[in-house]
Amino acid sequence: ATTEIQAKEKAFYIFTSGTTGMPKASLMSHFRWMKSMSGLGSMGVRLDKNDVLYCCLPLYHNNALTVSLSSVLASGATLAIGKQFSVSNFWKDVRENEATAFTYIGELCRYLLTQDETPQDSDNTIRLIVGNGLRPEIWEEFTTRFGISRVAEFYGASECNIAFINAFNIDRTAGFCPLPYAVVEYDDETGKAKRDDSGRLSKVGAGGVGLLLSKITDRAPFDGYSDEEATNKKLLKDGFKDGDCWFDTGDLVRQQGFRHVAFVDRLGDTFRWKGENVATTQVEGALNSHPDVDQAVVFGVDIDKTDGKAGMAAVTLRGGKSFDGNSFAQHAYKNLPGYAVPLFIRVVESLEATSTFKSKKVELRKIGYGDGDGDLYVLKGKSGGYVESYDGYVDEVGAGKLPKG
Q1: I want to staple 280 with a disulfide (CB 3.0 to 4.6 A). Which of 112, 258, 298, 362 is the partner?
Q2: What does the alpha-carbon distance between residue 268 and residue 265 come to, in Å, rounded to a whole number?
């Protein structure tokens, strides 16, 4: 009988997106779902009974099944379910449903910005959007163009035991978290949290970027994955004192102070080149802002006789556009520090994505700058631009001869 179900029992399994490997089934307990309704739905999103929340994400995604549904149930609002996401029909669907809010993930917002601007862009009924992944470089452009007054950006993961929510409507932040967490120094090579000589973790200061850990407590338990080995790999014990236990999110965030953080990158997607950490989200944001680019995916690749990984991007171009190596190089150097400018660019017709619009990087990394689909270009430097790939380029990079400038 339902009267005998306890909060700690499993409600459902939710699968991680599988952007950097196979999806894992993470357990969602009734307690976690109810906590999300209280924290995200009631405190963060704050709909009222007259609101209509439009959601076109698949219902097996936690932004739909937990965030959207709990926000509606907490407030007595209405949930309008879109059959699927369509760039061309999105705003038509919003108007037909008389929606006052919608649920997003970052790529959805970027896709909407690719449409040609019209005078009607800000003439809509939306006052609030809720989701995660709205990148800082498009935050103002998106909210201004579409007349959105409030962004309930949040940070969370299917398996994570805490969440941040932008309850105070501050630009470019994942928001506030009342539960215990730590942003700690990490090892570039291993991707693990650093421990000092006494075996303890070290927190970064305000403004610093570090690995986000969430503390496992009775109030914030970690339900884990269906695979016990996968669960144990994500736990850090005796971090700051004997007996404490922390969940390793695998995410890099910026410690903004006042219990706020901003998402920086997945640690597995960050790579080190020329002694500097390169965040793929920063590079993707810069390349995506080029007028010829439809979508860019960035990752690191190995080069013999070099330390770290060199940047590589796979890009799709807008219809009818051809690749302009000089324009791309000038744009990249203008918007990125020199060490973050990709050495390789592969122009492809399409990029495979998960069902929730996140790029799959595993196969792209495997192919790297080897034989693969599309046209491969290499960086000769700021003045030399990108040119068609040629034999010997990798050796020249390994010998420190390229790129110039």
Answers
A1: 298
A2: 8
